[in-house]
Amino acid sequence: MALELKVPSMVCSGCVDKITQEITKNFPNSTVKIDLETKMVNVETEASQEAVSKVIAEAGHTVE
Length: 64
Ligand SMILES: [Cu+2]
What we know:
The protein has helices at about 15-25, 50-60; strands at about 1-5, 30-35, 40-45. By secondary structure, the protein is an alpha+beta fold. Strand 2 (about 30-35) and strand 3 (about 40-45) form a beta hairpin. The chain has a single domain, classed as Alpha-Beta Plaits (2-Layer Sandwich), CATH 3.30.70. It binds copper (II) ion.
């Protein structure tokens, strides 16, 4: 499933790295693509949108 989440709290490449790491750590078969300009996180994953949003929130970010 392809998920598209807006995460406006991302401000730098450190945020991008952190979120990418946390998602792939929790859901190892996921592919994460993040556009810092548009604040969009695209995830190709078996996990639910709810589960991925929770991981992003636990990484200290806000999913819009
Ligand atoms: Cu940052």
